[in-house]
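#structure-requests
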Amino acid sequence: MDVDVAVIGSGFGGAAVACRLAKAGKKVAVLEQGKEYPTGRGEIETTGSGLATVRHGHFWVDIGAGMNVVRGIGVGGGSLHYFGVRLRTHPEIFDNPRWPKSVNRKILDPYYDIAGEMLQASETKPNPVIGPPPRSAAFMLAAKNCRRCVSEPRYVPIAVNTGMEPVMTEAGIPQTRCVYCGECLIGCPPSQSFVGNVNARALLTLNYLAVARKAGATIHPLHRVRVVRKVDDHFEVEIFVLDPGMRDREEDETGRIGMLRARQVVLAAGTMGSVEILLKSREAGTLPPISPMLGKNFSGNGDFLIPKTINTPQDLAPKAGPSITVGADFSTKDLKIFIEDLGLIPFLEAVMGTRKLTVSTSDTHSLGYLGMGTDAGNGVLTLHNGRIRLNWDPTDSMPLYRELTACLKELSQQLSGDYSAPETYNPIIGTGLLTAHPLGGAVMSDTADGGVVNPQGEVHGCPGLFVADGSIIPTALATNPSYTISALAERVAFWMLHKREMTKKDHGKF
C-alpha cells in the first residue's frame, strides 16, 4: 500500500483532515491540482479557454447556467483568495430538515473550538497611521439606523493579523501584521520593511498544512485526480500529473498518468472538485453505486458579491484595511441574511467583466458589500463535455434576492449614496450571479435516499471513502462558510480515528 490515506484537495477540509490524521501517525498524501505559491500571493493573469472554466492563477471561475462559481486552486485551496472571516453558523440553520438530526451547533461547537485554535482570528485593530478603516464606522452607523437591521452591527473576527506585532501560528510560523493594502483576494504584497511578502492572512499553509507536513504528510501540487477506484480492501486514485507551464485546464501530452493506492480516501477538493470526481467515477463505474442525490442540493450560500453604494458624500477609503471588517444581521422571520462590508476590489469586478482594472477618485466615495442568505439550495451539478457544470434556477430564491436588494438599498440611503448593481449582475432576473461559497452536491444525510454521505462524512455504500468539504453541507449557511467547513472536517477526521463523537476530555489531545 502506498499510503494509509489519500486526501484529495488542500483547502479548509483537506488541510484539517490531513493535519489530524498525520498527527495520529497515519501515512498521508495530499493531492492538489493547483500549484504551490510560496509567498501566498497568487497570479492574476487571466487565462483559459472556452465557456467552461476561466483560470485566474490561484483561482478559477466556473461559468454556469444562472450562476458562476469562484474556487481556489493551489496549495491552500480557498485560503489563497478568501477574506478570512471566522463566523460560526447560526444554530437555527441546523433546524432545517435537510440536516441530519445528529448534526447541530451544540455537536459542532467542540470542533469549532479546535479549528479556531488553528485558524486564529480577531477583530480588526486600528492601523497605527490611518486608524480604523473609515468604511467600517460608516457601515456600522448606517446599518444601525436601518429598519431592517435586527442586531447591533459589529466587527467580525478575521484571520488577519491587524495587531502591532507578529503572532505565531500553531506551526511556529510568524504571521506578520496587516499593512492595510486591501488586497486579501490576491494575497499580501511584498514587504517594504523586510525581504519577502507580508503574510498577515492565516493561510492554511501557515497552520494546518504546515503542521501536517511536520507530522510527515506529503503534499503533491499539480496532481489532478481523474477518478477513484474501489479495489477489494483499498482504493486506487488515478492521477494526471500536470505540467507547471500549462495555461488552462486541458490535459496535454506533457503530463503523465499515475496511480496511488490508499486504504482510505478523503475527497476534499471543494464542492466543484469533489462532486466532479464522484460524477466521473460513477460514470466510469469505478465505485459502488452512489446515491442518486449526487450533484443535487447545490447552494450558492445566497452570495451577493458585487453590488455597492456609490456617490457617498464621505470618502470611505474602501481599499484601506482588510477586505472585510464588519457585518450586520438583516434576517427576517423566514430568511437568514448577513451583510458585510467589502473593500474596493477592482480585480474581482474586472474578472467578472463589470469594470476595467482601474481605480478612479469616485471609487473612494463608495462601499461594496458581501451579502449572504438562505437561498433555496436547489442547484444541480452535472458533467458537461467531461467538466462540472452548475445549473441554477433562481426562481425559488427570489424572496431572498429581493430582500437582500432591499437591505442594500436601505444601507445606501443611510450612507446618502446611490445603490448600484452592474447591468450584467441582476439577481432579480437570475443573470450574472456569482458565488465564492459553493455548497452541496454531495450532501450529508442519514440515508442514501437523502444524501451522498452519512453524518460522519463517509459515502453511503462505500466504506473507507469520505468527503470533507463544502459539498457535504446540505443548506446555505448565510455566513462565510470556511469556519464551518473546517469544523465539519475536524469532525470527519475524529470519527475516522475514534469512531465516536468528541467530548470535553478529548480537547487538547486531538
